[in-house]
Design brief:
- The protein has 235 residues and is of the alpha/beta class.
- The chain has one domain (6-234): 3-Layer(aba) Sandwich (Carbamate kinase).
- Helices cover 40% and strands 19% of the residues.
- It is built from 9 helices and 11 strands.
- The chain has helices at 14-17, 26-41, 58-63, 68-92, 114-122, 140-150, 184-189, 197-206, 220-225, and strands spanning 6-11, 45-50, 97-101, 110-111, 126-130, 155-160, 165-166, 178-179, 181-182, 210-214, 232-234.
- The longest helix has 25 residues, at 68-92.
- The chain is globular and about 50 Å long.
Length: 235
Amino acid sequence: MPGYKRILLKLSGEALAGSARFGIDSERVQQLSREIADVVATGIEVGIVVGGGNIFRGIAAAAQNMDRVTADHMGMLATVINSLALSDALEQIGIPTRVMSAIEMHQVAEPYIRRRAIRHLEKGRIVIFAAGTSNPYFSTDTAATLRALEIKADVIAKATRVDGVYDKDPLKFPDAIKYKEITYLEVLAQGLGVMDATSIAMCRDNRLPIIVFNLNTTGNIMRVSREEQVGTMIH
């Protein structure tokens, strides 16, 4: 059966909030963990980057007259909280994990070291990359792209609330048209807000494909990892 050897799963912070807009829904996190565990059981290596929007949004805070650098650092710390929650849920069902933080906090997580991350993946552990890139002005999408390239992932699996890339927001426009596949340049030229422009450009320059899929459909993480036709392929 075809399938990727190593994937980078990009989750939004809101994915952990479940039906609530903020915070962490333990049932939702446990459900996600079971789906991810099923993928790991097939031998596929999984790295994860999770956002922090369910706890703190740096850009939103910066818009409210907070210093952008400070706000972004607070957002990075929010991703650490989410990473620990996801790690705990996975460990509870017997899946070994490592949280690796771009901001050093030894009592909480391992510091991010590329070669060590790759060794963890090779040993069947899920590596959850926390604290973004440690640099302000870079989103967790960019962090996901950077980590995917560093660990030589085959694909970025970008989990969203919709089932792919559309020419406009399908949640607002019922006549939105879905793309089965689309190029990086088309995403940039049309200003489609799938991922930020920096991450799309990085994927384009390094020929790293992105699959955008609906996380709310049970089993989609497995389908993506097996290279089944799900969502939209950006390449």
